[in-house]
Amino acid sequence: MRRDIAELFELDPDLTHLNHGAFGAVPRSVREAQERARAGIERAPMRAFRDELPVQLAHARQAAAAFLGVPEDSTALVRNVTEAVGVVAQGLGLGPGDDVVVSSHGYLTAGWSVEVRGAALRTASFPVDADPGDVVAAFAAAVTDRTRLVVIDQITSPTALVLPVADVVAAVAPVPVLVDAAHVPGSLPGVDIESLGVAFWSGNLHKWAYAPRAAAALWAAPEHRESLRPLVTSWSHGLPYPERFDLQGTVDHSAWLAVPEGIAAWEALGGWEQVGRNAELLASGVEVVRDALGTPDPLGGIPSAPCLRLVALPEGVATTTESADALWQRLYYAGFVVPPVAFAGRGYLRLAAAPYNDEDDYTRLAAALPRVLEG
């Protein structure tokens, strides 16, 4: 671990942290900014909620939009991508008789958000070693005349693949597309949201953009903004999009208020230059771990995310959710925070690279894996 960078976070130094993509890690400066926001509210709650929060939340929302490179009136703050899926499902009026297409690599909660409204899920399935054309064909084949929405991960959560969003949008048109970009802000360069042709795009800011947890952005194309409402209707009721999402009663807004500090931390850590450094580190670290395991590269023509990548485990290891969970526990008690993934009957490790990682983190994991896998 890079101790100089790790000191900016509050991670346990006795663990090797190789899973930043799951829940992120909040820099100390960002946590302190969040605490200051909470303290400011407690000094004069009436003043804060009535007069100060509307201005502060607008500033945070505008900072998020600027970071994503989109107009400030296009983007609302939500707590996570799962909430955004619920907002979109509500706005489209999804219900019984409607189909929603998701992928076999998608995050499960997106599907659950749709199912609770009575809509049916259809799955676009493709293997880890697929080519981009296979992904496009799978989505197109899953669409029916009852399909009201297609949900596609820009970076898949379990498998860390970067999917061809714009090509899928063209293939499923005119069905609206929601992009689950949970892992994208601050980690995937060159994303031009407005040029993708999608109806909705939502990304978490608490992973690679270093905001506190419960901070995410929801972008909507102009023709869909009026239909979107927060899942909790409170003091912002009646305001235009995106302001109507700002004040939701007496919930804790401090994670949103600290979004500008998270973006500042991302920039201080090196911005896109740091992402490039992390990507190079991960590429070499993956080779070290793969050599120790003696397994081939599991991927095909779909690129991996810059800071997330799969390594195949030996045949028969972590092939089910239960066995992957058991391996996670063994890895953790051996001092490693790295998630095993069971996908389509094969087991993998999903490795990450964050600013606080160094080459030794992957070398230690590679040296420990034979013993850990023996159980």
Please describe what this structure looks like.
- The model has no long low-confidence stretch (mean pLDDT 96).
- The chain is built from 13 helices and 12 strands.
- Strand 5, helix 8 and strand 6 (177-180) form a beta-alpha-beta unit.
- The radius of gyration is 21 Å and the shape is globular.
- The longest helix is centred in the first third of the chain and has 24 residues, at 45-68.
- It has 2 domains: 3-18 and 270-374, Aspartate Aminotransferase, domain 1, CATH 3.90.1150; 30-266, Type I PLP-dependent aspartate aminotransferase-like (Major domain) (Aspartate Aminotransferase, domain 2), CATH 3.40.640.
- With 375 residues, the protein is an alpha/beta fold.
Oligomerization = single chain
CATH architectural label of the largest domain = 3-Layer(aba) Sandwich
* Structure annotation, total helices: 13
Shape: globular
Strand content: 5-15%
User: What is the averaged pLDDT score?
Assistant: 96
Helix content: 40-55%
Q: Span between N and C termini? A: 25 Å
**CATH top-level class of the largest domain:** Alpha Beta
- Strand tally, please? 12
Keywords:
7-stranded mixed beta sheet, 15% strand, 3-stranded antiparallel beta sheet, alpha/beta, Aspartate Aminotransferase, domain 1, 375 residues, 2 domains, Aspartate Aminotransferase, domain 2
